[in-house]
């Protein structure tokens, strides 16, 4: 039986993807801060779920939880890092920015490294990071979020490059770049091309199966990505 860990499985993309993985026969370890949501998942899928409450801002605890899961599962095929926060914060209030940095950068990096090192030791496995279309450029109302996603994008690409040194060639790094997905996380008021959550989760699972390096969710967001990459900053200043 294949084994997966989904970080940030209490809601949204992580939860929907967990449900798909279970239907596909995986055993899944799920994490997040909200114990009631984890317990509800366990109740729904008692034979397939291992729950571990954690706050990824506490990196020592992340390490402990990660090692506990590996000890219980003995090997891991897939790690999905879906935990994340983001706030519309035009006044740049520090407490919110700190939350974003500690979650999306600090905790996330610790998870990436733990997964990468495990897969290197096992000589197989797939790390999937949920970044964002936001990874491509800056933004006036949520600079910390956009910068944290650019960081994730660069880190995942770095790990991909690093897999060159893994002899088996069976370690895969996948970066998922959603546009707007219908969860409480969809930032701001000018939301368009919103992808229903279930559709997004299905597309993400397809990208995982195909061992994609990068996937936009949905595919048409790759058109926006193309335009964003070309756009000079002065145009962004006018339109965003
Ligand atoms: N929805 C969108 O439009 C969209 C677009 C682009 C990218 N994304 C990215 O997709 C990922 C998933 O977001 P979502 O849309 O599914 O939103 P969501 O429903 O709010 O899910 C976020 C998940 O992250 C977990 N989390 C947040 N802070 C955490 C912490 N300190 N420790 C542990 N877990 C934590 C939450 O669990 P607890 O609250 O229980 O801790 C929850 O399970 C995020 O990385 C987000 O940036 C989303």
Strand order of the largest sheet: 3-2-1-4-5-6-7
Low-confidence stretches are none
- What is the CATH topology descriptor? Rossmann fold
Number of strands: 7
> What is the level 1 CATH name?
Alpha Beta
Which whole number gives the mean pLDDT? Answer: 96
What is the SS-derived class? alpha/beta
What's the order of the H and E elements? Answer: EHEHEHEHEHEHEHH
CATH architecture: 3-Layer(aba) Sandwich
Strand content: 15-25%
Helix tally?
8
**Global shape:** globular
Number of domains: 1
What is the helical fraction, as a range of percent? 40-55%
The CATH superfamily appears as NAD(P)-binding Rossmann-like Domain
Q: The biggest beta sheet, please?
A: 7 strands, parallel
Query: Which ligands occur here?
Result: NADP nicotinamide-adenine-dinucleotide phosphate
Radius of gyration: 17 Å
Q: Determine the N-to-C terminus distance.
A: 46 Å
